# Entry
Amino acid sequence: MKLDKKSLTDFARNERERFEATLQQFVEIPTVSGRNEVPKLAEFLAGELKAAGFAADDVKIMPYEGETGDKTVALIARWRADKPTAKPILLMAHMDVVEAKREELAALPAVSPLTADEVAEIRAIGDNTGSMALKGAAPDHEGEPRPDRWPLTPELEELAARWGIEPARDLVPA
# Structure
């Protein structure tokens, strides 16, 4: 599959029902701390990764004991590039959630105590839009984009600058 915007948009449109069904299954697993359901979610996600082409040996579920005896797990998946050309990266996320309690939500003020400027500042701090596109961007890439490497566009250069990334230093083979 090509990595241009149209190809990716077409792919997402064609796969929308499958994506929505997968997301529905994902969010229906109650991974609140203490309920011991994170292993179930990890098994589900491991199955999705393997179905997407990850080798079974590259997907591991590692059990451990969390807070107050919570039986939980870490899901580790190795994403192998066709032709590795840059330093490896680590993608992380947590699978447990904090339970939303109706009485606590009802007690929240109807109007936010934050100003619009404060909300905008907080949103800007957490905005990582486009950051994954930097993963395979290469200043010296020539030719067609590959699954693990593509040209560094002016938009990606601007994004790199925002995050203090120097393409000539940080986006070249180790």
Summary: The chain has a mean pLDDT of 85. Helices lie at 5-14, 16-27, 38-51, 102-106, 116-126, 154-162, 167-170. The first helix runs from residue 5 to 14. The CA atoms of residues 113 and 169 lie 43 Å apart.
